[in-house]
User: What shape does this take?
Amino acid sequence: MRDILASIKRTPYQSIAAFLVLFFTILLSTALFMSLSFLFGFLSQVETRPQVVIFFQSKTSENDIFKLKDELMSTGKLSSIKYISKKDAFNIYKQSNKNTPLLMEMTPQDLLPASLELNAKQPSYLPEIADHIKNKAGVDEVQFNKDIFEKLLSLTSAIRKISFVLFGYLIFMSIMVFATIILFKIALKKEEIEVLRLLGASNFYVRKPFLKEGIFFGFATAVLSFLVIIATLLYFSSAITHYLKGTSRLTFTIASYMFQIWPISPDFMLLTLALACAFGMIIAFIASFIATSKYLGR
Amino acid sequence: MIQFQNVSKIFALGNTALDDVSFTIEDNEFVFLVGPSGAGKTTILKLLLHEYYPTSGDITVNDLQISPKKIPHVELLRRKIGMVFQDFKTLSDRNVFDNIALSLKVIGMPTNQIKQMVMETLELVGLPEKEFLYPAQLSAGELQRVAIARAIIGDRKIILADEPTGNLDPKTTWEIMRILKKLEGKKTFLIATHNTDIVNSLKKRVLVMKNGKLVKDLKKGGYEI
Assistant: This one.
């Protein structure tokens, strides 16, 4: 640590420039990661809602409905299928209209049809499933918001692509700028490096201070970016809560581990911090390595 | 042992720095390298440090062939050699202790051993209690002592010096030479110099260079060109 601080003191302007470039990159990347996490949280919430609802005619027997249910499950394309009987449907209706008792009195118990709520393993299976059911006997109506799903899918795909391009650009830009700044620093320490090499320092020994400084900058900028983003989220938390009205929690899953994005949970904060640190340190390490290799390779 | 066999060095633009130079320096020998500017003295020193590589011929240092353009682990060769420059090449942002310790740090010596060895070497070069001073606080003579301390400390068996007294007054020059003489017989010295007084007085072996050629090899010679 003493060596790193001494090195920063020896070339303060280059150090500040390197720090600011890295801070900008990590801040943008962390903000991008947070935004994508929220977006995928929304997406997974939408995906948990029934994607296709099949309403049956009143005359359709429960046996026929169960037969269809088994047939659909055997396709292997559904992640879940739920049967809502006429009675269940009435109870749900009753629950949602409990403040209007007059309306309830006028509604006969068998008015609402029985239904099946379907969730597909992949959204791309949905149109095929919906088409398959439409012509089945006893089916009254198939509700499938095809447009919404297709738009959502194309939107997430586009955002994913844009994010990759943006991430790529940010990484490339920061590595290039950081490497250039390190080359400036190396130029300022040319005599020191010359003496070190004549004394028999290995390439790694010459590189080490630059790599250590780079990793330190990566870590420090990641922590600072994380704090800035958390502070911003806290500052706007009431506005976000208001905007997300009706959404109690947002989650997304990585390798079967579910992270709660909103309200922000400690494990999600830890994940963001860890990713920001890893990202910052890797970028700074690569840039420092490129710069020192360019110099030592001469 | 240092051995040059028919070594020539021609630079990219065609100027010949060394032309078919051959000599052998035994272990612990004290040798002066003299000659006018441009004679090839510095080229010989740089070849020994493998800063340059010869266009033709063979150079061997302690049985290690260092003629090829690329040699594996050049740092291991340089760890056997201490180099003293005319312009000292001390690092201005480090104190005397750190400047000398650098020579041991690069070889990975433990800190506790470094301290003891640096203090002993400071005593040897006549700079006790100056370890915390910075180069800007030292005279030219003191700076050269620091440079010598950095070159001789540790297990460096070959000491190369390129005009080590070039920037010093006669009194300080002799003080520096006295320090180097103290180590005679313990390390191999190859000192490139223009200083006639020293070469004539010490009566050591002298290699005389002229226009890139070794023109004389005098066993107990004086300065003559």
Summary: The interface with chain B takes residues 6, 10, 191-192, 194-203, 205 of chain A (CB under 8 Å). The mean pLDDT of chain A is 84. The CA atoms of residues 94 and 101 of chain A lie 9 Å apart.
